[in-house]
Design goal:
By secondary structure, the chain is an alpha+beta fold. It is built from nine helices and 15 strands. It folds into two domains: 133 residues, no CATH class; 124 residues, no CATH class. α3 crosses α4.
Length: 352
């Protein structure tokens, strides 16, 4: 199965602490010292000047010992008790940061976002590795994880997302190869069952509104369906639609129903359009070609117009909910349309 890795396999998470030789304690390291091997952090057997203790106490720490060389010391945080290695210069000239407290904050933020923190990126201080709820490892910026913790964003696993895209492709006879060679984030590169490779917008792969450029058929020659659909609007109105499509389910879910998200520019009445339109395919009759389906559909609409001239709803009755301008009928016509399609199904072998 094709997947898009989140990071190079050569890049591994870096932990913020080590276990120095001959100790069982966790010694946290500043970012620039995390690449120094644990064996370098040996005790440096030299006395600590008395006035250094005053510097440390004023800044929320206690000096434990000197370590590595004459320029480094171990500070114990008076808040969490964690041990952090720092340069003496940092203690004397700035406010040292407790790396243990910082690590705890990242863990808490990750937990609030539904993630598990695994470690820092070795070269990018803005990024860290996390375990997603699905079990896969993802690389994200710390600022993004903070947004996720506030529910302003949602972390997405690229491995699972790629698997989902592959399933979408397989359902339509295609194989996902990888990202778009022209670097358009809305497109992917796919391979058809016939062997042809083609750029396809992901939304088109989801809806089926495309064809293979090598062996595909246009809508007029491709097999199609005459369908009947029922819609229930949020205001309680029920209607029925008669039409044709190469893929009725795709037409129902991706073309006919308008978006119901608040503030959508597709709707004229966002207040009454705050609930989802309920729609379902009641019946579909296979046709040999789109051209034949179009001809049969026109004949059926003409028959309805002659027999039930008042059954068609005016566009203002449904334009808030549906992306069509005509051929929407009152609910009472549903059994009539279903009877027509039943009769059509029986005669389908004589059509064309």
């Amino acid at each position: 199965m094709t997947s898009f890795p989140t990071h190079s396999c050569a890049v591994q998470p870096t932990l913020p602490f080590i276990t120095p030789p001959h100790t069982n304690e966790s010694l946290f390291l500043p970012r620039r010292s995390r690449q120094v091997p644990p064996e370098a952090w040996q005790i440096f057997p030299t006395k600590i000047p008395a006035h250094w203790h005053g510097f440390a106490k004023d800044k929320g720490f206690e000096i434990v010992r000197r370590v590595r060389d004459k320029n480094h010391i171990v500070l114990e945080c008076q808040t969490c008790g964690g041990l952090t290695a720092h340069k003496v210069y940092t203690l004397r000239s700035a406010q040292p940061e407790c790396a243990a407290c910082h690590y705890d904050r990242i863990n808490e933020t990750a937990k609030a976002a539904g993630l598990i923190f695994l470690g820092y990126h070795p070269t990018n201080r803005h990024q860290g590795f996390f375990r997603a709820p699905c079990g896969h490892e993802i690389l994200r910026q710390f600022g993004f994880v903070e947004r996720c913790a506030k529910e302003d964003a949602t972390p997405r696993c690229e491995t699972c997302h790629a698997a989902k895209e592959q399933e979408e492709a397989e359902a339509r006879g295609w194989e996902l190869i990888g990202p778009d060679p022209q670097n358009d984030p809305n497109y992917r590169l796919y391979r058809h069952d016939c062997g042809h490779e083609q750029r396809v917008a992901r939304v088109n792969m989801q809806t089926g509104r495309f064809c293979c450029e090598d062996c595909g058929e246009g809508w007029s020659s491709a097999p199609s369906y005459i369908y009947a659909m029922r819609f229930l609007f949020p205001d309680g109105t029920q209607v029925v639609k008669l039409g044709f499509s190469r893929d009725p389910q795709s037409r129902l879910h991706y073309q006919l129903k308008r978006s119901t998200e608040a503030g959508s520019t597709e709707t004229k009445n966002s207040e009454t359009n705050s609930s989802e339109v309920d729609g379902q395919v009641l019946c579909q009759v296979p046709m040999q070609s789109g051209h034949l389906a179009l001809c049969v559909e026109k004949r059926l609409h003409a028959e309805i117009k002659r027999t039930y001239p008042d059954a068609a709803l005016p566009v203002e009755r449904f334009e808030t909910w549906l992306r069509v301008k005509s051929e929407i009928y009152v609910a009472e016509l549903e059994p009539v349309i279903l009877a027509m399609l039943t009769r059509l199904h029986g005669d389908a072998h004589d059509l064309g």
